[in-house]
Amino acid sequence: MTARLPSFRIKATLVVWLSAAGDVLLWQATGVGANLGVFGLAIVLAVGVASPAIRRHPLALAALLAAALLAALQIERATLVGWISFTLALAVAALAPRAPSGQDGWRWAQRLLMGGLKGLSGPVLDLRDVMRARTRKAPLRVAAIAFGAILPVVGGMTFLCLFAVANPVISEALRAWRLPEPDMSRAMFWVVVAVPAWGLLRPRGLRRTIGTSGLDGELDLPGVTTASIAISLGLFNLIFALQNGLDLAFLWNGAGLPDGVTFADYAHRGAYPLIATALLAGLFVIVFLRPGSRSAADRRVRLLVIAWVAQNLFLVASTALRTIDYIDVYSLTRVRIAALIWMGLVALGLVLILWRMLRAKSTSWLINTNLLAVGLVLATCSAADLGAFAAAWNVRHLPSAARRGVELDLCYFDQLKGAGIVSLAQLEQTLPAGDPRDRVAWKRRSLSAEVARQQSEWRTWRWRDARRLARVAALTGETPVFPAGASRRCDGSAPLTPTPNPGT
C-alpha cells in the first residue's frame, strides 16, 4: 500500500491531534466518564475527516453513526461493553469501503481480527512507503539544510556564551533554564493512542477470507453415519429426560430434596454447567446435522433433534428458574442479570439452530442472525442501567425478603457505587427512625460523597450521575459532604472497638 503524501500528512496530523486529545482527556485521570465519550467522538470525527470513502459507503456511514452514538453514551455512563461496541463499530466503518459487499459475519470476524493485527505494524510499513516515495534528491536537501545550519547555530551559541559572561541577568537565566525531563510513561501513552488511531485512519484489511461453504453439506468422518447420529440422539434424549425430570419434580413442583441437599445448593450449583450442556448440544447439531446432509434429511433424525432441542430449551428454562430462585433468596446483582440475559441468548441460539436444520438455512445465515441478536443485546445493555435496576429490585423486594430473615446487602452497594444511591434514598424515606435507617443513611451519604467527588473533576463527570445526585438531593434535602462521617463497616454498622491490652 503506497502512501500518498498529502493524504499521509493529513492523517499524521490527525493522529498527533488525537494523541494530544487523549493526553488532555485521559492521561492520569482519576476515572472515566465524559472524557471517554469526548475522546470517542474525537476519534469518530477524525475517521470521518480522514476518509471521504466512508461518507460515501452506506455500511461504513451507518457504522460511523453507530460509533458516534455509542461514544455519546459514554458521556451518559462509561461502560466496558459500550466501549467495546464503539470500537467494533468504528473498525467496521474503517474497513467497509475496502470490503466486498454482502459478506457474512464470519468473514467480517476474520477481517476485523486481521485488520487489528495489521494495524500494529501499520506505522512502520507506512513510514517505509513514505521514505521510498521520496526522490533521491531528498537526502541531499537534508544534508544541505544540516550544513547550512552550522554557521547560525555555532555563531549564535558563541555570542550567547560571551553575553552570559558579560551580563549576570543572562547568565542567571541560562543557569535556571533546564530541558524538561523525559516522561517515558507519558510518551508510551502517546504511542498507545497513536498506533490504533493510525490503524483506523489507514486501515489494512484482509484481501481473502475463508467462507462458510465448507460448513454446509455432508460431513465425511469415520464412524459418523446417519445410524450413529440417530442412536446418539436417542441416548441424549434419555439422559436429558432424566435431568429434566428431576428439575420438574424439585424446581417446578417443589418436591422434597434428599437429606443433606438444600434448595439453595440445588438451585445454584447446576446453573452454569447446564448452560454449557445446552451449548454443547447446539454445537452437536451444527456439526453433525448440516443442511443438505443425509442425516439432516432423515425424518427419524429430524424428530429426535426436535425432541432434543425442546429438552434443551426446557433445560435452559430450568436453569433460569434456578437463578431466579437464587435471586429471590440472595438478592439481585448485575452478574445475575447478565446470566439471565445470556440464558436467553442461548435459548434463542438453540431455536435458530433448529430452524436452520428444518429450513435448510446456510451456516452464514445462522452466524449473521446470532450476531445480530448479540449486537442488539449488547447495545441495549450498554445503554441500560443494570446496576440501578438491581438496586431498585432489591429495595422493592426488601419486605418479602425480611419476612424470610434476609437483610438488604448494603455491602453490595459499594460495587454499584452511584447506581444505588437513589434506591437507598428512597428506602431511607420509608424506614422508621432507628439503626436500620441510620445505616442506610450512612451508606447513601458515603456513596453520594464519592460520586460527587468524581463529578467535581470535569474529565470523569457523567450525565447519569448528575441526574442521580439531583434526584437524591430532591428526596433528602441534603448535599453530599465528604467525608460522610465516622468510619464504619461496609454494611453501615459501627466497627468494633478494639479491647485495650492491659499489658501495653
Quickly list its features.
mainly alpha; 504 residues
Portion of residues in beta strands equals: under 5%
Number of helices: 23
- The radius of gyration is 31 Å
Number of strands: 0
- Helix and strand element order: HHHHHHHHHHHHHHHHHHHHHHH
The dominant shape is flat
- If you average the pLDDT, what whole number results? 80
> In angstroms, what separates the terminal alpha carbons?
77 Å
The parts where pLDDT drops under 50 for at least 5 residues are none
Tell me the structural class.
Answer: mainly alpha
Kindly state the percentage of residues in helix.
over 70%
Describe the main β-sheet briefly: none
Architecture overview:
- There is one protein chain.
- Helix content is 72%, strand content 0%.
- The protein is an all-alpha fold and 504 residues long.
- The termini are far apart.
- The mean pLDDT is 80.
List the helices and strands and how they pair.
Blueprint: H1 5-26, H2 34-50, H3 52-56, H4 58-76, H5 80-95, H6 105-133, H7 138-148, H8 150-166, H9 168-176, H10 184-201, H11 226-252, H12 263-269, H13 271-288, H14 294-297, H15 299-330, H16 334-358, H17 363-383, H18 386-396, H19 398-403, H20 413-416, H21 421-430, H22 435-455, H23 463-476
State the gist of this model.
This protein is 72% helix and 0% strand.
